[in-house]
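hey so i finally got around to running the thing on that chain from the lab meeting. sorry it took forever, my laptop kept dying and i had to restart like 3 times. anyway pasting the input first so we r on the same page abt which one it is
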Amino acid sequence: MTLGIIGCGKMGRALLGGILEAGLYSPQEVFAHDAYAEAVDAMVADYGVVAAGSNAAVAAQAETVLLCVKPQT
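ok and heres what got predicted. didnt touch it at all, straight out
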């Protein structure tokens, strides 16, 4: 099983923390991307997930994708 996270801010980090704590996925099964490279780097450093090069790469590699972004109007 693989999980993708698009958006590595507060919402993405909170969901990922709970998912990993519950043992639903291992960090190596999680692919993450964000518009801000610093956010992805922090998530990789803190949780050990895999950085993806783009949102499309997340969608291509993950069976399930969480969109953790604020709604845009």
